[in-house]
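R.M. (postdoc): so does anyone remember the format we settled on? I'll just put the structure tokens first.
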């Protein structure tokens, strides 16, 4: 492994090392990495959700999906890891895009000397394309996509918004968005992806595309025709829908079902606590005593519509790949940046969710449903915060026996995306061994890969996954995050919890008291990693900053 704490300059020779690769007899595959935003483990159809996602479902049926794949618990750290193949601290984005502390591990943008997939795939002879959210640097610190190896790039300026976005950086230049064809952000991103695919056809080389949709990050914006498909479908309430998801997830073969009662979170308000149906006409703010079940239904209908629309755009892109003769030799990977979001954005907003005037998130109760069957949310490193769907499909090379399969034994991680892409590009296996992650391509070909230990740290939340064992620690002040969002969460009772994930993916049976030696061994291993990647204790990190806890 690369020890960035000892010598950051190791990175440059390593990346140059990849340039000289064995020439492949067959044509190198195109690669598209699709990253969705702020969605739960079971939101898409082929993972148990209510939203219609026929294109993602087809990719899963034709390819393979993982039941255990992990992200970085939050937007920026996830993107930094995905793009660099490093842990977020190693890449320079240990928190978000704001600088925390005095070290470069938390400087808030990808380190200048760290190569991204844009750089690496360009070195492998690829046309490199980026469309969508960036969030790992800016113009001031010279870490925009064009600075990090992407030949073509398009990302919006300003606040996240689907209806009111007007400006974008394209190829490093600020431009007014042309809305003559589409005026909804996800559609605009779909159009731009197709435009860039056509651009790639003018080059005599394969393409790599990083397609980072904003969907389904707040605000709850969607087209009315998409919302109409789901209006009324969530009036069953989150308890009933959670039970349905638990059974569907089990029937798919992703995570086995256990007693519904064990998975109902007592800290989530009861559906019956809200006035039934559309008792108070129109939409009423979450903080209003008139916020009824129809208002909650509208919020989740918009959220499902966002997912639906994203899948429609993915379908358009796939159809275009087929039309230009590139689909069969294109690897498509799909994943999400963190678990569902419990933040209370716009809780006083009286505007109808979905419309351009509104600016609201769907809140903790629906986020709890989205993360079924797991605990916790975005920000946190229990399974609900870091578990993502992962789908990989390569029509030309997919082992027939692996089509439609579910990988249940190997835990995948963001750090695996870089070695997977480099492996597909023909980089020799021996040259991949110095990376943090592993290539997942052997699994798609029906071969085995090695198991390894994985680590997390975000906002003081810590975890280590070693084989079937997971040791996890809630940040001592994490309950204050919930309070700031308007929800109640009891403070932690102990520092470390130990779970056997093979038997208890839901993290309900803490085995730390029965296995003190194992806990101590894993803490020691975690502390070694913590030091190696340059992680810093949260309390120390935020001292003197604007962060309150």
């Amino acid at each position: 492994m690369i020890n960035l704490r000892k010598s950051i300059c190791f990175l440059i020779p390593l990346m140059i090392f990849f340039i000289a690769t064995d020439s492949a007899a067959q044509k190198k595959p195109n690669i598209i990495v699709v990253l969705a935003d702020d969605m739960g483990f079971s939101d898409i159809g082929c993972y148990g959700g209510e939203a219609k996602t026929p294109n993602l479902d087809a990719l899963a049926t034709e390819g393979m999906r993982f039941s255990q794949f992990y992200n970085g618990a939050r937007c920026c750290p996830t993107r930094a890891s995905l793009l660099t193949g490093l842990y977020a601290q190693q890449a320079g984005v240990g928190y978000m895009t704001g600088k925390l502390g005095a070290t470069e591990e938390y400087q808030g943008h990808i380190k200048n000397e760290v190569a991204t997939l844009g750089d690496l795939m360009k070195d492998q002879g690829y046309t490199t394309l980026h469309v969508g959210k960036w969030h790992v640097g800016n113009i001031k610190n010279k870490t925009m996509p064009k600075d990090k190896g992407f030949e073509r790039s398009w990302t919006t300026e300003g606040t996240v918004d689907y209806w009111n976005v007007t400006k974008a950086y394209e190829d490093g230049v600020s431009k007014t968005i042309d809305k003559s064809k589409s005026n909804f952000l996800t559609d605009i991103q779909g159009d731009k992806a197709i435009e860039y695919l056509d651009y790639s056809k003018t080059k005599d080389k394969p393409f790599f595309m990083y397609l980072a949709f904003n969907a389904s990050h707040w605000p709850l914006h969607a087209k009315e025709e998409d919302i109409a498909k789901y209006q009324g479908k969530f009036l069953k309430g989150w308890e009933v829908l959670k039970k349905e998801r638990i059974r569907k997830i089990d029937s798919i073969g992703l995570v086995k079902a256990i007693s519904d009662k064990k998975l109902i979170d007592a800290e989530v308000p009861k559906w019956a606590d809200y006035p039934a149906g559309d008792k108070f006409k129109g939409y009423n703010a979450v903080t209003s005593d008139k916020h009824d079940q129809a208002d909650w239904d509208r919020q989740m209908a918009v959220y499902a519509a966002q997912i639906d629309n994203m899948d429609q755009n993915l379908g358009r892109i796939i159809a275009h790949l087929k039309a230009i003769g590139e689909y069969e030799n294109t690897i498509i990977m799909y994943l999400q940046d963190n678990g569902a979001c419990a933040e209370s954005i716009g809780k006083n907003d009286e505007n109808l969710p979905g419309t351009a005037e509104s600016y609201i998130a769907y809140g903790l109760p629906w986020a709890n449903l989205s993360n079924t069957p797991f605990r916790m949310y975005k920000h946190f490193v229990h399974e609900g915060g870091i578990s993502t769907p992962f789908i990989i499909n390569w029509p030309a090379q997919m082992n027939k026996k692996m089509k439609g399969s579910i990988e249940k034994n190997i835990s995948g991680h963001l750090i695996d995306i870089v070695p997977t892409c480099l492996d597909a590009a023909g980089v020799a296996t021996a040259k991949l061994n110095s990376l943090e992650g592993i290539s997942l391509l052997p699994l798609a070909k029906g071969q085995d890969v090695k198991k390894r230990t994985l680590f997390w740290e975000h906002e003081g939340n810590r975890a280590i996954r070693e084989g079937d064992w997971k040791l996890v620690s809630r940040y001592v002040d994490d309950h204050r995050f919930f309070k700031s969002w308007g929800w109640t969460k009891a403070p932690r009772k102990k520092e470390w919890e130990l779970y056997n994930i093979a038997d208890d993916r839901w993290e309900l049976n803490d085995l730390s008291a029965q296995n003190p030696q194992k806990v101590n061994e894993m803490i020691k291993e975690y502390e070694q990693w913590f030091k190696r990647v340059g992680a810093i204790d949260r309390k120390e990190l935020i001292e003197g900053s604007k962060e309150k806890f």
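R.M.: ...and that's the designed sequence above, right after the tokens. Also worth knowing: Residues 1-25 have pLDDT under 50 and may be disordered. The first strand starts at residue 30 and ends at 36.
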